[in-house]
Amino acid sequence: MAAINDRWAFERPIYELETRLAQLETHANGTPTSEAEAAEEIRRVRRELAETKKRVYSQLRAWQTIQVARHDQRPRTADYLNLIFDEFVELHGDKTFGDDRALLTGFAKLEQYKVLVVGHQKGRTLKERQECNYGCAHPEGYRKALAKMKLAAKYRMPVICLIDTPGAYPGVGAEERGQAQIIASSMFEMSRLQTPIVCVVIGEGGSGGALGIGVGDKVAMLEHAYYSVISPEGCAGILWKSPAHAEQAAEALRLTSKDLLRLGAIDDVIEEPLGGAHRDHHQTAARLKLYFLKSIRELVGRPADALLAARYEKFRRMGQFLEPAI
Fold first, then answer.
1. How far is 299 from 305, CA to CA, in rounded Å?
2. If exposure means fewest CB atoms within 10 Å of the residue's CB, which of 92, 93, 98, 313 is most exposed?
3. Fold of domain 66-316
């Protein structure tokens, strides 16, 4: 419990006010005078709670943002499938090795649009997380996703990718089955799919595992997600030889949505409800849905050649930097 408290120390004032508010609402009934006093106190605590959430979440450091992105109650891909889309039909297997549960794929309806949804899935219970390998996909997961995206492109169905992984699975078996090769192939093939692609980082966006389904016409992040070439723990292990420096590594990696928008690595930041997505799944889903609809309306009418040219130029513009003259 101490480790959990330390991890979420920056949220302690919020938890205390939420507990206070729950107690007041539970014992609000009484005499008319006490009821009026209780109602006024409830309004005061609610105002203070909203102000505290706004203050805390406007000042998050990079390491704190990562803790929010990893929150146990943060909505996952499966949650968004229920809250945003209709008539989801899951598609299984890569026709080569197996069906990786860490990547969900399937057709769905988004208002008037028929779309393909691809998303990492972490699970919530221990059993689900083990089945999903904690969101770390194997090569068969990326082969499955790529095959389904090609099927969608055949019928000009927009592709929506929900990114939420600490990274692709790094085990020996995954490497033997071509982990690096399939991620590279997926990025290459996505760059030339003749259909609109919208990618959103909804939680963790770690390394090649995220990039494997991260090439699109629109690339966005939820406000308190992160997107990085490596996890802070992995970076600290390489540079400082100890994961104890993960917080320092997080600051150096520039992995927050604000940093990446400023650097031009993403197109948009989707604002989360006050206090983070884990506090209001429905409002977060509503904002995501609006972003998907806006993006698809913008992209769906473009000729294929213009779509691919713009996608190519978008990624070519990334990573510009200045070098000193020799």
1. 12
2. 313
3. 2-enoyl-CoA Hydratase; Chain A, domain 1 (3.90.226)
